[in-house]
Write a structure and sequence with these properties.
alpha/beta; two-stranded antiparallel ribbon
């Protein structure tokens, strides 16, 4: 049986990528030979996440967007690489590029993202700033499938946290990231083990 192959897209420090690697190496996704983190895709050659991948023995596909005339042009090359490797799931983990239908459509239902709010509240940029400005008492994170909208894909999992009276974007982000590093690998494990089914907008997760 062929392994379940994962590609992680990231642009920065790579803390969520590291959480994925740690979970995978500990067998949290199932037998290591049954599920592999096959590839890191990054638009930042000098990003710390690239070094994390090299240290973990994960192959990298690094590109410079400025060398291409359009997003679609480099996404065509990325899709070809994903298909060559037989990627089953794309995990967006701090990837700072907008995606076009060139890559979203062929991986619809096989691409997930984590967003720092309880969607559909506060989509897009600066979700934590939006939440604080609005004065909500609860916020959290959402793991969702990616579609062609802005944080509009079907929701797989959510976890709420309380907003404290003196929270800043920085203190709230710290608690949000702590949850992300636990919940996101959990969702990846459920998908890799065939426990997640997508039916329209409804996501059914076996317990």
């Amino acid at each position: 049986m062929k392994p379940f192959r994962i590609a992680v897209f990231a642009s920065g420090e790579g803390t969520n990528f590291q959480a994925m690697v740690d979970a995978w190496q500990k067998g949290y996704f199932g037998a290591i030979e049954a599920t592999t983190i096959e590839l890191l895709v990054s638009d930042k050659p000098q990003a710390p996440v690239v070094q994390r991948a090299i240290q973990a023995g994960v192959d990298t596909y690094v590109f410079r967007p400025k060398e291409y005339s359009s997003r679609e042009q480099y996404e065509i090359e990325i899709v070809a690489e994903l298909e060559r490797r037989g990627i089953d799931l794309i995990v967006l983990a701090g990837y700072m590029r907008l995606l076009t239908p060139t890559i979203v459509n062929p991986y619809m239902g096989r691409m997930i993202n984590v967003h720092p709010s309880l969607l559909p509240a506060f989509p897009g940029k600066d979700a934590l700033g939006q939440a604080l400005a609005y004065g909500v008492k609860l916020t959290g994170i959402t793991v969702h499938f990616v579609d062609n909208g802005m944080d509009t894909g079907p929701i797989v999992a959510q976890q709420a946290i309380e907003v404290q009276p003196h929270d800043t974007a920085e203190t709230l982000a710290e608690r949000i990231h702590e949850i992300e590093r636990k919940l996101y690998p959990q969702v990846v494990a459920q998908i890799a083990q065939g426990k997640v089914t997508l039916e329209g907008r409804q996501v059914i997760v076996e317990t």
